[in-house]
Amino acid sequence: MRKQILLEIAVASLERAIAAERAGAHRLELCSSLELGGLTPSLELLRQVRAAVKIPIHMLVRPRAGNFFYTAEEFAQMKSAIRRVQGENIQGIVAGALLPEGSIDIARTGELVALASPMSVTFHRAFDETSDSSRALEDVIGAGASRVLTSGGMPSAAGAIEILRKLITQAAERITILPGGGLHAGNIAAVAQIPGIRELHTGLGTVLPYSDPHLAKFESAIRKILAAL
After folding, report:
1. What is the pLDDT along the chain (229 residues), one digit of tens a residue?
2. pTM above 0.85, yes or no
3. What are the structural domain ranges in the chain?
4. Could you say which architecture CATH assigns to the domain 6-228?
5. How many CA atoms lie within 13 A of 145 on its CB side?
């Protein structure tokens, strides 16, 4: 019997959210400005998507592009964004913060986790900016996050299979490792075969421009991924 793997799709528009659900995606990561790596979406977009789809939604909380160590004002913006979506029937927050030297900001991450509760928190790919992934994983676990979105520090998660395998072994069921970055139908099956993989993430940006208006292409790309899984 083939294992069931949850497929999360990053989207930045109502149209792509609807198309992702129609194609069979199991969860959405809702963002804006995916071409910048993703930023916090507007409350209006969130409400439109929530009204239109039934699958779970995780919302990215990232106030700007660039590095992941934030000023007090930027961190306050992040907390405000989480407060605004309490009661909006979404299931998770995707966020994270680093210290200037590049390690996990455990205190701020823990604060975001506590504020988001009962929503789950995914620590996003700021994780891949750390210099010691083993230590970083323990820090994220200590902060209380539910999962880590990571490409294993590589441009594509498909090029980091051994790193991802080690992270899953280290996690030992304490946290979900969510591989993402550069995944598509042509390479996702190899990542899915890693023991312990339960979820996978892609925005399909390496095979389809985020600005491409052709929803049929987007749906087809998702269906091909699901077929490969």
Report:
1. 356 899 999 999 999 999 999 999 999 999 999 999 999 999 999 999 999 999 999 999 999 999 999 999 999 999 999 999 999 999 999 999 999 999 999 999 999 999 999 999 999 999 999 989 999 999 999 999 999 999 999 999 999 999 999 999 999 999 999 999 999 999 999 999 999 999 999 999 988 888 888 899 999 999 999 999 9
2. yes
3. 6-228
4. Alpha-Beta Barrel (3.20)
5. 31
